[in-house]
Amino acid sequence: MAKKNQKEELANRLLGRRWESLSEREKRVIQHLGERQHISHDTNQEFDTKLTFGQRLADQVAAFGGSWTFIIIFAAVLLSWVLLNSLILARRGDTFDAYPYILLNLFLSMLAAIQAPVILMSQNRQGIKDRFDAAHDYEINLKSELEILSLHEKIDELREKNWSELITMQQEQIRLLMQLLEKRELAK
Question: How far is the C-alpha of 41 from the C-alpha of 103, rounded, in Å?
Fold first, then answer.
C-alpha cells in the first residue's frame, strides 16, 4: 500500500496527474523513479532476440543487397554476361542470349521481384525498431526530466531551510548586539 501511495504522490507531484490517468509508459517511469531503478536497457538486443529466422534472413539479404560488395559482384556478372554473349559466343555463333539480352532482362526482373519485398520487409522491421527505440528514449528522457525536477525541489527545500536558519541566526545576532548596546549605554 505504501508503494502505491508513493507512486500516486510522485505522479501527482511531478506530472500533476493522477496515477490512473497515466499511460503505461509513464507508470513504468514513475515506478522506476520511485524504486530508484535504472530504466535504460539495450533495445537492440531485446529486439533482435524476438526476430524469427525469416526476419533475420530478410535483414541479411537487405544488408547484402545494399552493399558495395553486391553492386560490384552484380556489375561483374552483368559485364560478364554481355561480354560472353556479345563477343565470345557471337563469334562462334552459339549465343544463348543475344542482344537485346531478353533472358538477362528476365533474370533481372525476377531478382528485383524477389529482392524488393524482402527489402521492404526489412525496412518495415527497421521502422518498428525505430519506434521501439523512440519510445524507450521517451521513457529515459521523461525519467531524467523527473529526476531533475526532483533535484530542483530538494535544492529549493535546502535553500529554504538554509534561509530560515540564516534568518534565525541573524535575529539571534541582532538580539545579542542589542544587549551589548544596552550594557554599553548603562555603563556610560
Answer: 51
Tell me the pLDDT tens digit for each residue of 116-158: 999 999 999 999 999 999 999 999 999 999 899 889 989 999 8
Instruction: Classify residue 170: in a domain, yes or no.
Output: no
- Name the average pLDDT for the chain: 89
Classify the phi-psi angles of 95: left when phi > 0, otherwise alpha if psi is within -120 to 50, otherwise beta: beta
Residue with cell 526482373: 109
98 domain-assigned: yes
- Alpha carbon dihedral 49, 140, 38, 157, in 10-degree steps, equals -170
Determine, yes or no, domain membership for 122. Answer: yes
Maximum pairwise Cα distance, the chain? 136
- Residue 130 belongs to some domain of the structure: yes
Answer for the pair 132, 43: CB distance below 8 angstroms, yes or no.
yes
pTM: 0.63
Whether pLDDT at 2 is above 70: no
Could you give the number of structural domains in the chain?
1
Nearest to 29, CA basis, from 37, 17, 21 = 37
